[in-house]
Amino acid sequence: MVNVSKEILEQTELDALFGQLNGTIGQLGAKKSELFLSSFLGAEEKIMLAKRLAAIIMLTHGQSLYLVASALKISTSTAKNYKLSIQEGRYDLLLEAIAKRKARYIELIETIDSILHLGGVLPHYGQTQASEAYQKDREKRSKNLSVNRKV
What we know:
By secondary structure, the protein is mainly alpha-helical.
């Protein structure tokens, strides 16, 4: 659980500190920003941010509130709040930035897919009985098995 001090900062002070944090991260390259965030954030903060990102991606791809909540172990009300924020456009910049880097986006989708698959929530993306890719792959494996049996 993330601990927030009961002592409240003035909004101007908070804005100034957040501006400094943004400026610091903005000056770092990709590798250095990753190292910075790894050392700067606590374990709970990393988990919270990773779950938020995964939920946003999953909801953007049409997953249900229940599936997102159960897969990521968040409340359905949290998932609903993320969905409302997506609909309001709060995450448009984030989604646009992620989509620009196709390789990283695909890697992110595969990571989320593995979470869902390993958690037993869903089969891997495209591996439903109705999917053409799944059917073709299944036929290919069947042919390979029948060829191997004949040898």
